[in-house]
Design goal:
CATH architecture of the largest domain: 3-Layer(aba) Sandwich
Strand content: 15-25%
Function: Catalyzes the oxidation of 3-carboxy-2-hydroxy-4-methylpentanoate (3-isopropylmalate) to 3-carboxy-4-methyl-2-oxopentanoate. The product decarboxylates to 4-methyl-2 oxopentanoate.
CATH superfamily of the largest domain: Isopropylmalate Dehydrogenase
Number of domains: 2
Structural class: alpha/beta
GO molecular function, one term: 3-isopropylmalate dehydrogenase activity
Subcellular location: Cytoplasm
Protein name: 3-isopropylmalate dehydrogenase
Order of helices and strands: EHEHHEHHEHEEEHEHEHEHEEHHH
Distance between the termini: 20 Å
Shape: globular
Bound molecules: 3-isopropylmalic acid, manganese (II) ion
Family: Belongs to the isocitrate and isopropylmalate dehydrogenases family. LeuB type 1 subfamily.
Strand order of the largest sheet: 2-1-3-12-11-4-5-10-8-9
Length: 356
């Protein structure tokens, strides 16, 4: 097959981790005889610095013309510490999600046997945990308007908006995934307080009837936050709105032992985007110490979701698991002080794939 990929490394550790992921992608393409063509483009703070726009039109054009977008991370302390900045790197990511119509962000959470003892949670609680969080990605408070400040600057407001259509399409997707898994959907909301959540629950209750083979559970987000660390194995497919999904998946990443482990796929109307769930980790930028595994695992999702390359995805996952078994890992998950560099982990995984 022919792969046509837009590569958007972004800020901070983005370029280093994406480079490792591309090593794996190239190794897989060579092995399977796939033709690979890819182009880099700017997004985030680096794009602001060069063009003034965090998601330049050129980048959008490239994404639209590609079969998949492979994304690193965005964000820079330069903007985080400047609340009055008019243009922010995050607008690049949000603009891309909106313009590509990426309404569903799929975040699979699984534990890795060799990492069980790295989790702050007891091994018996997390062993075998395997669920998928489906986060709505183009609605809610992230995009609701009005958003802003009063004239005197002393009052600020965000607006949470959801339409029936937005809820229907994401909830249906959750049921479709659940049918292929353990047939359980947990709808997470705050229906005891929020009007948008009450609409979510109403719509979900209607859609639930279309999938009688799937068990449905409704849960308030505060309770879900607790249950994630108390009994993560009780989840199969969790579906929730944008902000709740953002928060719950960072929480979920501690189950695996490191924020550097969780990949994601964002799908919707136009080209799908594959990116780690973690941020740009500016403190580590350029130091060759960041964990590239979430990004490499995002490449596995890219093969599976964008190219229907199930074997290719499985091979990348196998290589990642093998690197952990061999302790060829970065400092966040290393044992006995023996940490490998970001690039060494990337090389090891590419070589594993090539030799396989
Ligand atoms: C994520 C990130 C983004 C989000 C930020 C960088 C805007 O935290 O992808 O989870 O909040 O969606
Ligand atoms: Mn987040």
């Amino acid at each position: 097959m022919k792969l046509n990929i837009a590569v958007l490394p972004g800020d901070g550790i983005g370029p280093e981790i994406v480079e490792q992921g591309m090593k794996a992608v190239k190794a897989v393409c060579e092995k399977y005889g796939h033709e690979l063509s890819y182009k880099h483009a700017l997004v985030g703070a680096v794009a602001i610095d060069e063009t003034g726009n965090p998601y330049p039109d050129e980048t959008h054009e490239l994404c639209m013309q590609s079969d998949a977008v492979y994304f690193g991370a965005i964000g820079s302390p330069k903007y985080d510490n400047n609340p009055s900045a008019k243009v922010r790197p995050e607008q690049g990511l949000l603009g891309m999600r909106k313009k590509l119509g990426l309404f569903a962000n799929i975040r699979p959470v699984t534990t890795f046997p060799s990492l069980l003892h790295k989790s702050p949670l007891r091994a018996e609680l997390i062993e075998g945990a395997d669920f998928m969080c489906i986060r709505e990605l183009t609605g809610g408070m992230y995009f609701g308007r009005p958003q802003g400040r009063s004239e005197d600057g002393n009052t600020a407001y965000d607006t949470c908006v959801y339409t029936r259509e937005e809820i229907e399409r994401i909830v249906r997707l959750a049921y479709q995934y659940a049918q292929k898994r353990r047939k359980k959907v947990t709808v997470v909301d705050k229906a005891n307080v929020l009007a948008t959540s009450r609409l979510w629950r109403q719509v979900a209750q209607e859609i639930e009837k279309e999938y009688p083979d799937v068990e449905t559970e409704y849960m308030f987000v505060d309770n879900a936050a607790m249950r994630l660390v108390q009994w993560p194995k009780s989840f199969d497919v969790m579906v929730t709105e944008n902000m709740f999904g953002d928060i719950l998946t960072d929480e979920a990443s501690v189950i695996t032992g490191s924020l550097g482990m969780l990949p994601s796929a964002s799908i919707g109307v136009h080209t799908s985007v594959f990116e780690p769930i973690h941020g740009s980790y500016p403190q580590a930028a350029g130091k060759n110490i960041a964990n590239p595994l979430a990004t490499i695992l995002s490449a596995a999702l890219m093969f599976e979701y964008a190219f229907n390359g199930m074997e290719e995805g499985a091979l990348i996952r196998e290589a990642v698991a093998a690197s952990m078994d061999a302790n060829v890992v970065t400092e966040d998950i290393a044992e006995n002080g023996k940490a490998y560099k970001t690039s060494e982990v990337g090389d090891w995984i590419a070589e594993y794939i090539a030799k396989k």
